[in-house]
Design brief:
Layout: H1 2-29, H2 34-56, H3 58-63, H4 66-72, E1 78-79, H5 84-87, E2 93-98, H6 107-121, E3 125-130, H7 152-171, E4 183-187, H8 189-192, H9 197-203, H10 210-215, H11 217-224, H12 231-234, H13 236-251, E5 255-259, H14 263-276, E6 284-288, H15 316-324, H16 328-338, H17 343-353, H18 362-390, H19 401-406, E7 413-416, H20 418-421, H21 426-432, H22 439-447, E8 451-453, E9 456-457, E10 475-480, E11 484-490
Parallel strand pairs: 2-3, 2-5, 3-4, 5-6, 7-11
Antiparallel strand pairs: 1-6, 8-9, 8-10, 10-11
Helix pairs in contact: 1-2, 2-13, 13-14, 15-18, 16-18, 21-22
């Protein structure tokens, strides 16, 4: 057994040395091929080194294998080759694309950042590619209609917004010195802006096969629909495919990741690379499942109530509250795919949920804290926790007008004159502010113990608003039960 292991190690070492010698010889004799060959042999050498690592240190390699981690957590849908499992045991460069079709990313995009972060945690370099060029075309994947064209100013604004979000999230993802790998943000408009159409046809188009392009699932669905598909959208897969080729040749990127709806675009890239660079056999694609709601629909930005990742579009408080309200049926799945908690800790939470002494929403609270910290940082989490505590009926937290005004965008608000409010009964104020529909509803809720003024339960129908009740002379907070609230601004 020991001799066999030693022999395998020697063969692997010799293979890696011969590969490096061969690559250096060819690159020095053919300077024009240096980009593509450097990328190819870098990946081949990584694979050889990975094989050696897996032979000599199987336990250590297994712990750091990002593919196995993703698989265990339900974040692996498909890979183009099982060889990726071995290749990823040595440092690789991996990229995920984000088209700037809105000023902010949303919850549906979060999995891409999660998977990039897992690669970083396992020692790889992550590349976030902003689609400044591809967003002008529109990805038909998963779409029943062609996307509306965006003007240049909107694209620039969206690009800046998304770049800031990715920088914040990946830059503050809590990686310690044990996980100190880099991330890079690029924009594909930088290489597409000077690419002439005739050059594109010559360098890319002649390698594409129309039959293969039409066989892609995203294309087939659109061609069978009444709306059909424009030539512009039809070429999208070639644009994304060339992005992979460009990154492979110029950045040494060997892996592209994306949601399961990106499989056709990703394989278009791996196929294009192998046709143009036949020696490039160490390029891979990996997809993860789409993040779905309980009813099976996708999270997106085109529906009401989208869960945005920008604090200017959705406050950390509301973001936190969304995950705190996740149903029990979904919370463990979300803990696996949206957090970096140890899998054993998640299993322990799952066991607690069916135990007699389980405190309701314990798992949801942990989920909300972890995801909010990842997206909004420690300051954003603290802001969400402070607002959550301040808005809790019966809480002993001292309220101040800044806290109440700060959550004003997250709960219904109204403005009333000081003289209108002073000496007005809380029952009347609940109706006047729009919190409740009628006085009878307000009285009924009061008798049930569910009507609150500034988080204090109102016990009497005769309770009237006094000057001391108006927080800092500027606001009041009314609550009907735990969830329905109304901020009354005093003018």
């Amino acid at each position: 057994m020991a001799m066999a292991a030693s022999a395998r190690s020697s063969i692997t070492f010799l293979l890696s040395q011969r590969t490096l010698f061969f690559s250096n010889s060819i690159i020095s004799s053919k300077p024009s091929l240096s980009f593509s060959l450097k990328s190819t042999f870098s990946c081949l050498a990584s694979s050889a080194s990975s094989l050696q690592s897996s032979t000599l240190e199987p336990q250590t390699a297994s712990r750091r294998n990002v593919v196995e981690i993703l698989e265990e957590r339900g974040l692996l849908e498909s890979i183009t080759s099982d060889n990726l499992r071995f290749a990823c045991l040595s440092p690789l460069k991996v990229y995920c694309g984000f088209d700037p079709t809105a000023e902010s990313l949303h919850l549906g995009n979060l999995l891409g950042l999660i998977v990039l972060s897992w690669f970083r945690r396992c020692g790889h370099t992550s590349v976030a590619l902003i689609g400044g060029a591809t967003a002008r075309v529109g990805d038909p994947s998963g779409k029943s209609l062609e996307r509306p064209e965006l003007d240049l100013q909107t694209l620039e604004t969206n690009t800046l917004g998304i770049t800031n979000i990715i920088t914040r999230i990946l830059g503050n993802s809590g990686l310690d010195s044990n996980f100190s790998s880099d991330f890079v943000i690029l924009n594909n408009y930088d290489w597409w802006k000077e690419f002439r159409f005739l050059d594109f046809l010559k360098e890319v188009g002649r390698f594409a096969r129309v039959g293969t392009m039409m066989a892609k699932e995203s294309v087939k669905r659109r061609l069978e629909s009444d709306q059909g598909m424009s030539y512009t959208e039809f070429t999208y897969q070639l644009l994304q495919g060339y992005d992979f080729l460009y990154l492979y040749q110029n950045q040494g990127v060997c892996v592209q990741i994306g949601g399961s709806d990106q499989w056709g675009n990703i394989t278009a890239g791996t196929e294009l690379i192998r046709k143009i660079l036949p020696q490039a056999d160490a390029v891979y694609g990996l997809t993860f499942p789409l993040l779905l709601k309980s009813d099976g629909t996708k999270f997106g930005k085109s529906v009401d109530g989208a869960i945005w990742l920008s604090p200017s579009k959705l406050s950390p408080y509301k973001f936190y509250q969304y995950f705190f309200s996740v149903p029990d049926a979904d919370v463990i799945r979300f803990l696996r795919i949206l957090t970096f908690l140890d899998i054993e800790e998640i299993r322990d939470l799952e066991s607690q949920m069916v135990s007699p002494g389980y405190v309701p929403n314990t798992a949801q609270r942990r989920l909300a804290e972890e995801v909010t910290r990842f997206v909004h940082g420690e300051d954003g989490l603290n802001e969400a926790l402070e607002a959550t505590e301040a808005l809790k009926p019966g809480a002993e937290t001292k309220l101040d007008w800044k806290t109440i005004v700060g959550i004003g965008e997250d709960v219904p608000c109204c403005s009333l004159e000081y003289d209108q409010v002073l000496n007005l009964s809380v029952v009347d104020l609940a109706v006047m502010s729009g919190l409740l529909e009628s006085k009878s509803a307000a009285r009924r809720l009061l008798k049930q113990g569910g009507l609150y003024l500034n988080n204090s339960r109102v016990d009497s129908e005769s309770k009237k608003i006094e000057a001391v009740d108006i927080i800092d002379g500027k606001v009041l907070l009314l609550s009907a039960g735990k969830k329905n609230k109304m901020v009354v601004r005093i003018s």
